[in-house]
Amino acid sequence: MTTRATRGTRRRTVVALAVILAVLSAFVFRLIDIQVVHADDNVAASLSKLSNSNPVPGARGDIVDENGTVLASDAFVYDAQLDPKLIDDYEKQTDPKKKPKMPWAEASEKIAAVVGMTGDDVRKLVSDALAKNPNSQYAKLKNGLSTEKYLALRDLGLAYIANKPRAIRVYPNGAVAGNIVGFLNGEGKAQYGIERMDQQCLAATNGSISYKKGQGGVRIPGSERIVGAVDGGTVKLTLDSDLQWYLQQMIGEQAQRQGAKAATATVVEVKTGKIRAAAEYPSVDPNNVNTVDPEYWRSHIFSDAYEPGSTFKAITAATVIDQGKATPLSHVTVPAREKFPNGTVINDAFPHPVYDYTLAGALIDSSNVGLSKFGTQVDPATRAEYLERFGVGQKTAIGFPAEQSGLLRDPAKWDGTTMYTTTFGQAFTVTPAQIAGAYQALANDGKKIDLSLVESCTDADGTVHEAAAPQSEQIIKPETAAAVRQMLENVAVQGGNAKTTKVDGYRIGLKTGTAQKTDGHGKYKSGVFFTSMVGIAPIEDPQYVVVVTLDEPTKMRSSAANAAAFQQAMTQVLKTYHVAPSSEPMGPLLPKFN
Amino acid sequence: MSLLNVRVQPRTETRPAPARRLRAVTAPAGLRRPKLAYAALAVGGALAIGAAQMIVSLASTQDAFALAKLNNQQRELSLQKQALGDELVALNSPQALAAKADAMGLVVAGAASYLRLSDGAVLGAGDAASWVSTVTPNGPTKVGNALLAPPPSASTETPADGADAQGSTADGVPADGAPAADSTAQDAATQPDLPPAITDGLPSPTTR
Fold first, then answer.
1. Among A62, A355, A532, A551, which is most buried by a count of CB atoms within 10 Å?
2. ipTM rounded to 2 decimals
3. Count of alpha carbons within 13 angstroms of residue B62, beta-carbon side
């Protein structure tokens, strides 16, 4: 039973409840709207209003040599700018309390002293900017200030100077290994060398830092959010920077002495295929690339393919011996000029009577006719296959930027002349790196190991990623390699450069090469050559291969021009790596003639 | 479980509803006086919590200032380190070291000799190192480094010592690259405007 009074109470309760619920649901609706539906927008809006967010740039990784000597790293410089309007405002300020302590006339002199300008220059910068735009807030003072100068400017305590830091690449050793290390362009993009080849390891990932600021710019505790930058990794090369410097200094002096346009010296460790030095002249200084012609920004050791000439006679000898067609003592009749059955005429570089050359003798005197006769005992397809095995026609495993693969034509299409010239290093092209690789195989008992230039990449967190182990392949029999080395030693001892290439205390083997250069119109340049000298030491237990090339020497035009450079390079290499002097005496000399 | 074990409770008789216990009060019960101690405890507790929170908050704010100060100090020191590092960069580069060593009369010698301890035999070149450097770091050809200010000694000392070098070559100091040395001598003769190339280093050290 309900009375009127209880009915009224109930109705009031219901209405009150309805109102409360309505208000509550409105709040809930708004809450969900704020917290769920527009949550992301609101968070973003709050962060943008309340907090500061700055990118945290990661540092690009270092490039170091085999001993950890830094060849490239990041550093900071500062770009200073002035606020002309603020300076003007201060000058016009009449309230002595608001006027800065140091008047502009005095401040400009102090600024000028720091940045190395005159006070008038600095004042002119400001007045020019104001003349252009009375509200100008930007006038470039000077870019690229050192930290020391930046600190000096900052300590002046002037409100109208702003210094922006900027990361730059610094190469502490300058041109030492400059052609190998490479450089970045103005925008920080890798252009050449290792900088470009190992961009993936070196590049940093930028992070960010965001925080809320309280009064006075103090960061509110607990409001910081840091997404850490990941610095780039450190690339460790196989080079030795001290040896590299010596060879660059030496090869530069020798190139000047011989009046050569350019020169290179390459050192390869026989047992590992690691390149220990890759010296070039002219060499680019990555700190200031404009000191040399842009042609020398790239590494010519990898990007200059040329006809090697006589250095590849040793490869022909290896082919013939490996195929069982000859031994070092096999002999052929060799006139100075021979007309072969297909009409091709081959000349020796020097006049001589008809000799009965042994293979060793033909190598010692570097007889084109002799090698043509020995080489053609093996069919062209097999010879081409051997050249390929020695690395001709394919890039080295390094994959250096702008590397050339060289050219080896299909043996089926070799013409009459090519049939013979390929036996003495013509009609195909190789880079100095490929020559070093070919001789590495001869030195390492026929086992060719891929050349390498990078030892490892170490991440910022210390994880070391070793470079993939180089591939190796037995390309000729060990006995063949030994026989060729024996002949190369005889070339070193009995050849024309025996005196000038002698390395005291060591037995070495070497071969010279004087290659003709194309003039770009299908003919050879007359009178200028690309000369080279390749050697192995110590010959009884090969440790290092050294390749020295000179581009168009003009004082001595033959490969004899390379003798002094080769001798110095080999001496320094053996000294640097503490290679034990030869203790076994050389065996009996191989006869040149039958 | 067997049904035999289930004890059925006999239903009890429903009793008549008990009489209502509510009665009209005769007089309101006297209000008990609230105990002051509890109130004081509650208020005191609240104040204590408030105070503690304020202290903690102050302390952490203070820490923020200390942290900011230390951060500033760290930034300042790392800038100083950077400035000092800038001064040192390139000073340990091979060219800089070689140029200084050369200016002091040190030479890069030729082949090394080794002493075998077991029998005292000398292996390798076996003769004393030459006075003649195999390279001339302060000569006209240099491995460049834009980070190095040109060493003042190089330009002032080189011409004078160059004359010595030429003289010593004439004295017959054996050089490994003898033909090359001759050609450079000619080179220097034909191009008098260039500083004389010192092919054989600096034979007379100026320091003792």
1. A532
2. 0.77
3. 6
